[in-house]
Amino acid sequence: MTLAAILGICLFCWGNANAAVALTPDFAQQAETAPQNTETGKPQTSNPSTTPKSKPHKKITSANCSEAPANSQPGDAAKPCPPKKKVVRNGGANEPEIKITPDTAPQQDAQKRSTEQLTAATEQNLKKVEGQSLNSNQQEIVSQIHRYLQQSKAAAATDDLDQAHSLAQKAQLLSEELVKP
Q1: How far apart (Å, rounded) are the C-alpha atoms in residues 178 and 163?
Q2: Exposed end of the chain (fewer CB within 10 Å): N or C?
């Protein structure tokens, strides 16, 4: 396609008007349907200056297109009018602005309750171990549990519920290991 356009421009610039006419779609169509010379086998062409040029047709809308008149007969063939065009600029009609937000309130409440339950279970396990004598490894686990609980409460205070829940879970798992005989 690009090569054809370049070739057409080159031929036009060289002043070969016959070659420029040959590149038009109308001439190509005429060349296909033109009778061929029996001696040379080439299509016979008429003088391009005498061939009529076709003009692009403009779509004409009839002025008599209208809704069906009241006195029209069922046999009358009335042209239906095309729908009127409505131009909408800058985004269209005035529509209310819709804000899309996830409904996280029930999830947050459930996560808070779960965190509180984990914290309560951890504290109960710590109370069970409180009167027992612990070795150094177990004492380190108890101090780690306290750190997790403090960090969980701090995260909950800053509304970081995921972090608070994760830390409460870690503390609860460590307390379960501590309580096991």
Answers
A1: 23
A2: C
Rounded CA gap, 103 and 33, in Å?
71
Residues of the chain with pLDDT under 50: 16-17, 19-22, 27-28, 31
- CA separation for the pair 147, 91 (Å, rounded): 55
Give the domain ranges of the chain. Answer: 2-33, 105-179
pTM (two decimals) = 0.44
Count other C-beta atoms under 10 Å from residue 9's C-beta.
Answer: 12
SS3 36: strand
Q: Are 37 and 44 in contact (CB under 8 A)?
A: yes
Rg of the chain, C-alpha, whole Å: 44
Residue type, 97: E
Contacts of residue 176, Cβ cutoff 8 Å, sequence gap at least 6: 125
